[in-house]
């Protein structure tokens, strides 16, 4: 059976890795973005604004996907606005498809804010007990993930396709210009420390330094998205998705440092701010880029320190249960240190870090 995918948000960390995986599996893949990349062949670029129904309908007029993958979101100042805008984006895509009744499956990628709450009240109050499990009830807070899910459920009921929701932890993978990109952010930070002699200090909270945690390789997420969209066991379900191992940052941090030829600095015992540490380093990164012949001179295109601070600054441990999808047949595993090392090697090979 042939498969045609529409990947919404194809230039992001999830969309890029998913599109690459689907192409490798022989799918026809359309990559939708406001400013699609034209160097991702054989992914077919589609340019459209998800909040402009008319141009979206025109852009999708000749596309008949069997699968739609939502890998895009837009951040706004309040969660109320996040809910309105991000659910509208999902609804607009289904409304713009010429033959939505021809869909076999649609998948939505969300994340741990499903359990920890939105940005403006993130990990506040009494946190849920870990490990996070899919059957945990929604928090009594506005959350755009919930509104996106509801839009997906409505379309599924209307048009008769199966759905899946995927909840990764922090995603590690290759993407440039992405707002949520811890792996590349840490690579930039480590590179600056090596070039300047600054200490490579873990900027996060004591709970993250000492406690157990897990992460999600973008390739692992792509594997689960593929599995859920092509297996009956994956239909009409929400699944957590992490690498399958657990670690403590106090164990991993020296290993990341060693990859860059650094000694990890002693942990200061309290959370710092990577955003503050990198503040004002635009000219420094531009100089490092020129000195080493790197492709990207703008540090803001590589590092998203604010989001890394949010992840590493959590005051609670984050451990995610994967039993549901494992029992359903998804058994893929990814060793977390290799998620970072593979990314670092690619960034260096493509001359994005020295």
Describe this protein's structure.
- The protein is an alpha/beta fold.
- It has two domains: 4-168, Rossmann fold (3-Layer(aba) Sandwich); 177-214 and 246-317 and 335-350, no CATH class.
- The chain has helices at 13-24, 53-59, 79-96, 113-116, 144-159, 182-196, 206-210, 218-230, 249-259, 274-278, 282-292, 305-312, 323-328, 336-349; strands at residues 4-8, 28-33, 44-47, 67-70, 105-109, 162-168, 171-172, 212-213, 216-217, 237-241, 247-248.
- It has a seven-stranded parallel β-sheet, sandwiched between helices. Strands 7-9 form a two-stranded parallel sheet.
- Helix 1 packs across helix 8, helix 2 runs parallel beside helix 3 and helix 3 packs parallel to helix 5.
What is the topological layout?
Blueprint: E1 4-8, H1 13-24, E2 28-33, E3 44-47, H2 53-59, E4 67-70, H3 79-96, E5 105-109, H4 113-116, H5 144-159, E6 162-168, E7 171-172, H6 182-196, H7 206-210, E8 212-213, E9 216-217, H8 218-230, E10 237-241, E11 247-248, H9 249-259, H10 274-278, H11 282-292, H12 305-312, H13 323-328, H14 336-349
Parallel strand pairs: 1-2, 1-4, 2-3, 4-5, 5-6, 6-10, 7-9
Antiparallel strand pairs: 8-11
Pfam families: PRISE (PF22917)
Protein name: SDR family oxidoreductase
Organism: Gluconacetobacter asukensis
Order of adjacent strands in the largest pleated sheet: 3-2-1-4-5-6-10
CATH superfamily of the largest domain: NAD(P)-binding Rossmann-like Domain
Beta strands, count: 11
* Radius of gyration (Å): 20 Å
What profile does the largest beta sheet have? 7 strands, parallel
Mean pLDDT: 95
Strand coverage percent: 5-15%
One letter per element, helices H and strands E, the order comes to EHEEHEHEHHEEHHEEHEEHHHHHH
Secondary structure tally, helices = 14
CATH fold field value of the largest domain: Rossmann fold
CATH class of the largest domain: Alpha Beta
Named at the architecture level, the CATH assignment of the largest domain is 3-Layer(aba) Sandwich
Q: State the end-to-end CA separation.
A: 45 Å
Tertiary shape: globular
Protein name: SDR family oxidoreductase
InterPro entries: NAD(P)-bd_dom_sf (IPR036291), PRISE-like_Rossmann-fold (IPR055222)
Pfam families: PRISE (PF22917)
């Amino acid at each position: 059976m042939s498969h045609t995918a529409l990947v919404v948000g194809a230039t992001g960390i999830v969309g890029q890795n998913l599109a690459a995986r689907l192409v490798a599996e022989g799918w026809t893949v359309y990559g939708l973005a406001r400013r699609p990349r034209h160097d991702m062949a054989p992914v077919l670029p589609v340019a459209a604004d998800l909040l402009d129904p008319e141009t979206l309908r025109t852009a999708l007029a000749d596309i008949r996907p069997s699968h739609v993958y939502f890998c895009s979101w837009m951040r706004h100042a309040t969660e109320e606005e996040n809910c309105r805008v991000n659910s509208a984006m999902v609804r607009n895509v289904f409304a713009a498809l010429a033959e939505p009744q021809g869909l076999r499956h649609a998948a939505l990628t969300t994340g741990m804010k499903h359990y920890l709450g939105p940005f403006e009240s993130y990990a506040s109050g009494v946190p849920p007990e870990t490990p996070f499990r899919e059957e945990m009830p929604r928090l009594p807070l506005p959350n755009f993930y919930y509104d996106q899910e509801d839009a997906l459920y409505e379309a599924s009921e209307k048009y008769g396709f199966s759905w899946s929701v995927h909840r990764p932890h922090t995603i590690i993978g290759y993407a440039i210009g992405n707002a949520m990109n811890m792996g590349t952010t840490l690579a930039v930070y480590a590179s600056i420390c090596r070039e300047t002699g600054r200490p490579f200090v873990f900027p996060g909270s004591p709970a993250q330094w000492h406690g157990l945690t897990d992460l999600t390789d973008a390739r692992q997420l792509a594997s689960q998205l593929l599995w859920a969209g092509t297996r009956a066991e994956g239909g009409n379900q929400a699944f957590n998705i992490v690498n399958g191992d657990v670690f403590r940052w106090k164990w991993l941090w020296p290993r990341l440092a060693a990859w860059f030829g650094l000694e990890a600095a002693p942990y200061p015992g309290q959370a710092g701010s990577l955003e503050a540490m990198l503040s004002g380093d635009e000219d420094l990164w531009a100089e490092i880029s020129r000195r080493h012949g790197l492709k990207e001179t703008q540090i803001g295109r590589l590092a998203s320190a604010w989001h890394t601070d949010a992840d590493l600054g959590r005051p609670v441990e984050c451990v995610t249960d994967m039993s549901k999808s494992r029992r359903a047949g998804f058994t893929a595993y990814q060793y977390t240190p290799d998620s970072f090392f593979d990314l670092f090697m690619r960034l260096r090979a493509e001359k994005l870090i020295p």
